[in-house]
Amino acid sequence: METDKRELHERIACHPLVTPFRRKVYEALLEVPRGKVTTYGVLARHIGCGSAQAVGGALRANPFAPDVPCHRVVAADLSSGGFCGCRTGTEIARKIALLSAEGVPLDVEGRLSDASRVWKFGANA
DNA sequence: TACAAGCAATAGT
DNA sequence: ACTATTGCTTGTA
Fold first, then answer.
1. Which pTM value belongs to this model?
2. Are A115 and A79 in contact (CB under 8 A)?
3. Could you tell me the domains of chain A?
């Protein structure tokens, strides 16, 4: 039994710091199934934005973590990217652990071992 | 309201 | 490896 997604969506909509753009980012992120990841670029493109940095900026201030699985977002290079505003450190180790617990194989460097684990919106598995 | 700087990135040189 | 580009957020004037 999982959390009511609708409630989470309403929670997002009610948040004062959440702009329409951020909301798109979070909702798109919720479309990524467990055991899969996505990249900043793909996610940005999916929400109609050409800047992955904008996505990064939105996730950096993600007030819904880990309800919004920001840890399922990696860089196009398959590197871990960042987590909770940190690009390296204990937080990243936490991100790796979370992904590993979801069935996503990560290298000891925090890199994705299998590129096919990347979720492309519309390209089903 | 207007302007400038920065960001968990990516692509191209 | 480095620079340029990208769209959005935040802070300051």
1. 0.93
2. no
3. 5-117 (1.10.10.10)
